[in-house]
Design brief:
Blueprint (H helix, E strand, L loop, with lengths): L1 H19 L6 H4 L28 E5 L8 E6 L4 E4 L2 H6 L5 E4 L10 E5 L6 E5 L4 E10 L13 E5 L18 H5 L4 E9 L7 E13 L1 H10 L12 E6 L13 E8 L2 E12 L12 E5 H10 L4
Antiparallel strand pairs: 1-2, 1-4, 2-3, 3-8, 4-7, 5-6, 7-8, 9-10, 10-11, 11-14, 12-13, 13-14
């Protein structure tokens, strides 16, 4: 019996290891990704549920100007020219997105500001980010094997019409580029996203919120979906990940395109690395405590992402 259990454990380890044996990335394409990524002027992110100005300078909005049904998807800035997002909201509207919005933190304010207090003098310093910028979209590449019914390969690389200048409130996120970063997804992650207005579908509002999630194995994820009456049919070589919301707050809308990541120490510096791309979860809020979000596993898509970057 002990031998049988040991054999089963070894087989399980072998399956996990096989899934993480990812093909090498093209060095010339990797060179297009910024090395100074995933850092902010605030240092490491706080444990609050509402973001501060400058805290997530890589968050992006994919917006449409003229559609009968306005749509908003989220995304992340990965280079001066590219944003990573999903393709499904484009398919829904049957119209190409118009522009990328960068530098947003609170939709309700003209200026996004943060205050800090000097512990010795008690003096309060207020710093404000600059205005948001809207950059037209030049083109985008959608994954050719996107499967809407099964929520697979919902990923797109969007090229803006010009390069963006980095500053304190607009900076790129890191992607898992090294073998070490691609080998394992951290257990505890965070997803910054705006709430969507129920009275105006797909319109974001208020301040950027932070929702804490945990990486969940696909077998457990499958069981929870089956209990809820869904069947995403995960496979051994699946390119998706499951992110379970752990509170204290829960998002009930569909945060399509929101980056899921965490801070990781890379060469002695804490950097925010994106591991997931939020895709779908049941709209019934009663399921949010037990049914994870289906997301694209960025570690599995790094080859596809980098191959579609151009200088």
């Amino acid at each position: 019996m002990k031998a049988f259990i040991l054999l089963g454990a070894l087989l399980l380890v072998a399956v996990v290891a096989a899934k993480r044996e990812l093909s090498p990335l093209n060095p010339s394409k990797l060179a297009l990704l910024p090395k100074d990524c995933g850092v902010t002027k605030l240092g490491r992110v706080s444990n609050s549920t509402v973001s501060e100005a400058f805290e997530y300078p890589w968050i992006a909005l994919v917006l449409f100007n003229k559609t009968r049904r306005p749509a908003t998807c989220f995304g992340s800035l990965i280079t001066r020219r590219y944003v990573l997002s999903v393709i499904n909201c484009i398919r829904k509207t049957k119209q190409d997105p118009n522009f990328i919005r960068l530098g947003e933190q609170n939709e309700a304010t003209k200026e996004d500001c943060v205050e800090s207090k000097d512990e010795k003098t008690g003096a309060v310093t207020k710093e404000c980010a600059g205005p948001v910028i809207d950059i037209p979209i030049e083109s985008y590449v959608a994954h050719p094997e996107f499967d809407q019914p099964m929520y697979t390969n919902d990923i797109a690389v969007i090229r803006m019409s010009r390069e963006v200048e980095y500053n304190d409130y607009i900076r790129p996120i890191c992607l898992p580029t090294t073998p070490a970063l691609r080998a394992q997804i951290p257990k505890h992650l965070v997803m910054p996203v705006w709430e969507l207005d129920n009275d105006a579908p797909n319109h974001y509002y208020g301040a950027l919120q932070k929702f804490y999630v945990e990486d969940v194995d696909l077998d457990s994820c499958q069981r929870e979906y089956e209990k809820a009456g869904f069947s995403p049919e995960f496979g051994d070589d699946d390119l998706r990940m499951c992110a379970l919301q752990v509170g204290p707050n829960y998002v009930c809308g569909r945060p399509a395109g929101a980056p899921i990541g965490t801070e990781v120490e890379v060469d002695g510096t804490w950097r925010h690395v994106q591991y997931g791309l939020a895709k779908w979860s049941p709209l019934n809020c009663t399921f949010r405590h037990t049914v994870p979000m289906i997301s694209m596993d960025i570690t599995q898509y790094m080859g596809w992402i980098t191959e579609h970057l151009e200088a």
